[in-house]
Amino acid sequence: MGAQPDQNSQAAATAQAVTEVLGDNLAGLYLYGSAVAGGLRHDSDIDLFAVVEGSLAGDVRKSLVDMLLHTSGRWPRSGPARPVELTVVVRDEVVPWRFPPRSDFVYGEWLRAEFEHGQLPAPTEDPDLTILTTMVRDSSSTLFGPPAAHLLDPVPASDLVRAIVAGLPELIAGARGDERNVVLTLARMWVTAESGVVVSKADAAAALVSRLPAGHAAVLRLARAGYLGEVADEWTYRETEVDSFTAYAEQQIRDACKATGRSGVSPPHSGGPVPHARFTVAPASSDSDRGSV
């Protein structure tokens, strides 16, 4: 499914700029996330995924960062420009597939302050690429190059679960102030742990709500309705309900991993900074499609 034209002008302009900066090194560029999975919500990011033939040179990294600092909307969103998230992978780092994968460049608004002070994204182990690669292969709009499924290897369901379980502690620790995102992301993790398939937040919530105890179902319904723009979801006085839901969902996810024979145990991190958990944690109240489909 392609992005709706009225939603895509910023994405098209950004994609054109990315294509020009990356030049002959670019093998494929893809729009994914909410833009191609039911439409951008008010809080949605524009999510782009680029595959390149070789690691980016320093001047290319700087050109990308300078361009994105100018074109990406700040968070929290205060104008028409949406936040942009760009992930760049070197094809040989993800084909053939292995876990944990490595990203070559990541831009997201949660990193703006670092970039404004001159830091540049560096290659790093990035378990979240497990989920992003699956999302891009399964549901993306091709902006340059062949379809993503022709360029990227499929990701084993066991590796999806490893990435999800590895992100659970950080996700749950960040629930306060980001309740909607955390509740819906847990729902999607749960569905993926059971099925090996990555689905949208709204679809995951719809699939689970009838199976939940009444109190947990009410929390999930509120989060889904807020995500869809049906209600102004207010979480200030729901700390107890949210804490109860997150504990319940975490246990269900871990149980699902055991039941399907996928332990979700990741290998030790090889050193260096731990990458931001893009699938599991977005800026507070954001619909970052790193994980927030």
UniProtKB/TrEMBL annotation:
Pfam families: AadA_C. One of its GO terms (molecular function) is transferase activity. Residues 151-250 form the Adenylyltransferase AadA C-terminal domain. Keywords: Transferase. Residues 259-293 are annotated as: Disordered. The keyword Zinc-finger does not apply. Residues 263-276 have a biased composition (Low complexity). InterPro entries: AadA_C (IPR025184), NT_sf (IPR043519). It comes from the Bacteria. SUPFAM superfamilies: Nucleotidyltransferase. NCBIfam families: PRK13746.1. This is DUF4111 domain-containing protein. It comes from Nocardia flavorosea.
